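User: Working on a comparison across species. This one is Serine/threonine protein kinase from Reticulomyxa filosa. Can you predict its structure so I can line it up against the others?
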Amino acid sequence: MNLNLSIKVESNLSLKEDVQIIIHHWIRTLDIKLGWIEDFDKIVVNYVYVVFMFDTFRSSSKLINAFTGHTSAVSSIDYSTFDDCRFICSGSFDETVCAWDIDNNKKIQSFNRHSSFVYCVKFSSYHYHNHRRYVICFSSFDNIIRFWDFKNNKKLQIFNRHTDSACGIEFSSFNGGRYLCSGSWDKTICLWDVKTSKPLH
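Assistant: Here's the predicted structure for Serine/threonine protein kinase from Reticulomyxa filosa:
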């Protein structure tokens, strides 16, 4: 066993032993009855070890990339992969939505036809899986939810039932993301059928 590996093994054993001592102290001090979990101390030791390893990983992690181009605060981001290409979309208080190509480190499109700032952005898996289109859905404080094909720079559907700012949006995790849920400052939640562009509720 080489010296570095030996040090790591001893360090890990030392950490586990320290945690064992602390746990047994808690049990004695608090008079905790743990008969229903016989391996409680092992579970906690493993949990602490994983957290320690995560902290070690985090401390050695580094910034991969930074994308600049918005002129005001970025309010929302989303990530997706289309045809093996990785993208980020972002919405901002500068009233724009941007699509970024991660692999080539550049902004590829910008949509700025809003009268107010953008609150939330989401990639539409429904449009990709059913029509092979690269589509971003976004809500705005102008009360409107829009769909934008950023590959062809084409505006698609508009949902405008809300009477006040459209805030959070979320696609369904079932039916290929066919349904969209939106919340608003008008105190309502709307459910939409993306296929028919009609509200369900």
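For your comparison, note: Residues 134 and 151 are 6 Å apart (CA to CA).

User: Helpful, thanks.
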